[in-house]
Amino acid sequence: MLWDGTYIIIGVIALILLMLVLGIISGVMEFVLVESLVNNVVTIRASVRRYLRPGFNLFIVKLVIELVFLALFILAMLPVVAPLLKPGVVITTGLLISAIIWLIVVLLVLAVAGGIVNSFIGLSIPVAMYNRKGIIAAIKEVVGAFRREWKQVVVYWVVRIILGIVAGIIAGIAIFIIFLLVAAILLIIGLVMFFALSAIAGPDSLLLWIVLGAYAFLAILVFIILGLLASVPVPVFMKYHMLAFLNAWHPEARIRFFDAAPIIPAAPV
Question: What are the residue ranges spanned by the domains of the chain?
Fold first, then answer.
């Protein structure tokens, strides 16, 4: 028999591989989404092939940045955590509160810094696509433009935060109402099925519980699909906002919205 810990190691490796694959897919879809919104044409298969390499490069860049942020978090927390790990240390309430406050401060600082970095990366993707540049070169171009006209970007960030909050609230309310309606409909159908099958086969019938189990599975799938669909509008709206701002702030990006004969950009290397 395999050592019990082997299963844990295999599970961890499988989880890491899954996260890597999902990260690469996410990187590719960043390019695909931008192209679809700009051209108003959805060609998933062709776009995925076209942007597989730049999507992988984007994934590597994001992975390196995330590792850097993780290292910064560890370094920032060491002065607080190290004393707590010393043998014989007495953990007082004041020490614990100060550690929690420091943790919150570190997380807030890293969250703000991460948001800024992600914003630069998001702005760099169309620049890379429509100027046939690598993602790193595009980031350098965006950062250079930010140094020259940083005030507009700061206003953009503020507006984006407000728009995100408002859009999130509106979408949340709409999703909640839709979920309630769907849940009510599914519940009514389920009750009708339960009483009908109970009258036909009896409440203890195996057929009854098989049918209800299958129906519950389908209901869960419906909610999963609804959740996936509900998660689309706000990110798409925010991406439109980003592209519109980039086109006005940095015309060198050469974004041509809804071109009658859109130029499909070559995948950057």
Answer: 149-254
